[in-house]
Amino acid sequence: MAETFGIAGRAIGAEHSPYIIAELSGNHNGDLGRALALVDAAASTGADAVKLQTYTADTITLDVDRPEFHIHGGLWDGRSLHELYQEASTPWDWHEALFDRARGHGLHCFSSPFDPTAVDFLETLDTPAYKIASFELVDTPLIRKAAATGKPLIMSTGIANYAEIEDAARAAREGGADGFALLHCISAYPAKPEEMRLGTIEALSQAFGVPIGLSDHTLGSAVAVAAIARGACIIEKHMTLARADGGPDAEFSLEPDEFRQLVADCRMAHAALGPAKHDRKGVGGANAQFRRSLYVTADVAKGEVLTDANVRSVRPGLGLAPKHLPDVLGRRAARALTRGEPIDWSMIAQD
């Protein structure tokens, strides 16, 4: 049984509608007006929350010209970490306006802190939760710092092994977090659907006993819907106003109409889940009456033999089940039978 978990009064778990987060990341392209428009767009999709990332290039990395500080391959090939994060960072003096805009829409707004100063800053904005990014999951002092605020945490597991996830979970619990959830994540940008390994959702749930979600870097909604079917109760997805506008995360972000479809699809998928039903009423409901059953198909005199000329399986389903046909044929009618009557055992003479 997963631990109780919620954000600002919104319960999150398998029995609740999926909690869907629009990740804004660097898709503001350096324009506060665009960032605010992203919040507005997220609200229009039916998402539950918008998420920011709180860092500066200097708090997340170093401006050092060494090979390990440059990206080799992939979407950002050839760029230095400092250069990339300088472009993608959300200025701290924008945060208050973004939090206010989100709250005005009734959206939760929270962020991923990347160092202790970001936690202190986000506390001044009364953030309702903290997100720990995949690459920071090994930073247990940062997790403890966020947990010590008494807020709930969402932690991505992207490139962590189980021992590292356990370390992070211990830091959250011992640090004082008001519950936490784990997100399965494939840290590829964009991620390929065939590499998503969604069975990990159930494995994480069994191993850690907390709500599990998906941080999804694929395009479209298919993988997120499949994740809901595997037990995910949180979906986090990047959103942009238009991929054609470019930006560091644009290639694996959904546009507002696509995000709206994602929300609808995930909610529908969750609504379709439920306990197994094997009773006739539960499976068929009112339509169960139209299943096949045994009926009189020609008038039969009392004492006449029942044959396939006067009894057969038809719709609806008010007579004996078709499996009883061999037991009925060759027997005699206990009374006169009229075409269209459903067969029951009282009609069969006791030899």
UniProtKB/TrEMBL annotation:
- List the CDD domains hit by this protein, alphabetically: SAF_NeuB_like
Q: Is this entry keyworded Transferase?
A: yes
Q: Which UniProt keywords apply?
A: Transferase
Give one Pfam hit by family name: NeuB
Every copy of the AFP-like domain together lies at: 293-351
Domain of life from the UniProt record: Bacteria
- Recall the GO molecular function terms of this protein's record: transferase activity
EC assignment? 2.5.1.97
PANTHER family in the cross-refs:
N-ACETYLNEURAMINATE SYNTHASE, PSEUDAMINIC ACID SYNTHASE
Q: Per its record, how is this protein called by name?
A: Pseudaminic acid synthase
Q: Native species of this protein?
A: Albidovulum litorale
Its lineage opens with: Bacteria, Pseudomonadati, Pseudomonadota, Alphaproteobacteria, Rhodobacterales
**Name of the coding gene:** pseI
